[in-house]
Amino acid sequence: MVDGCLLLLSFVVPFLAVLVGLPPFLRFLTRKGKVSNDVHKSPPTKVPEPAGPLLFAAALTGEAVVAIGFGTWIPVAIMIGAGIAFVIGLFDDLYVLGGKAKPLLLLLAGIAFIAMVGFRPDLYQPVLTFPLLGDTAPHFIIYTALAVVAFPVVTNAFNMMDAFNGEISWFTLLTSIAMLLGVSLHAAFTSGFDIARVGATAPLVAVAGGFLIFNRYPSKAFDGDSGSLMFGAMFAGLSITGGVELAAMVAIVPAILNSFYTLSSVRGFVERRKMAARPTSIGSDGLLYASTEPGAPNTLIRLILLAGALNEKDLVKSLVYLTLVACIFSAAISILTWVP
Amino acid sequence: MRLAPLFGIEAAAFLLIVAETYLLFNFVIPIGTIPHSLTGYTGLALLKLGSIIALAALWFVVMIGLTRLYVRAKIRTAPRPSS
After folding, report:
1. Which of A35, A86, A282, B5 is the most buried (most CB within 10 A)?
2. ipTM above 0.90?
3. Mean of pLDDT values over A64-91
4. Are A250 and B81 inside 8 Å of each other by CB?
5. pTM of this prediction exceeds 0.95
């Protein structure tokens, strides 16, 4: 009963923090002139950015509920990793970091998260659990190395899914729900699994859900890199503490493909503002078109638009469908892994 | 229906990720016991590293191949903005 109330609180508190806190924060950003052009509108509109600081504060309230309520270090580890990613993102929002500097700095988030094993030795189990096949043997060194590398990979993947109205909030909401399902099944069918790990996942769902109200088409707020990198770092950390790495990796396949397409077609880490050719363009009819230039980066958006021009709302709908299919794969993995 | 080919690419990526991760953790990492000579240790480490690179390369090659097929099929009929 107490656990149920705490789980509910870990969702409700950050959700309300976004709903109540974001409108005045957006007014504050607008007063300070912190607005960005919504470049996919014709003519471009001005949208307050970055909402990341408020989203981080809201996630912090939810994780504080879990840390205090369940008396656990897990949310502290999650928020240290997410906090470092948030600070790097905020610096990028204000001063713009280089394409190579960002992933290198984001390794710090992974290192700090892993260092928390010193305080909580059971922060993660260095095994992967496969559907039907069960656990691998423990591989502490390789697992830990991969966990550190996961932070820049996942945070950048989330960052690259932040180009259109509602894209990042829909993506984070759906993938975090898929992860919450995996962690919940892990908790329900594994004896001795700490329920605080389920609670720690709820604030990510809540913040993404709350933010969607403001970020959906037409956007009233942009999260900035501070928000998208924080979302990615929380997702990476929670998948490790929840022991659902495989299901989490499968849920974010659209973002992995998007990063892979971009990196392989521009041949390395290039800051998106410095790309030579744009993957898409906006027509005089207001529709988005795939670039047919040979040098244009092959982003997931370009691949979708190659099948036909779309308005921004329908384009994001297509991305939501792709994410939904990945989340169904992820749910299948979770069910086959944890349900006996 | 317009997304059907992309769902296919997504499914291929998903299956390869699961299969390759399984191969990596169950077969590549546990290869051999730690040898008591530097050359043996280096050789084993290189073998594992090479296997990991090969698995990653397989994923890259399949994904690039599928994407090129898709782009080639669509780019000729892709709509262009009227200026």
Report:
1. A86
2. no
3. 95
4. no
5. no
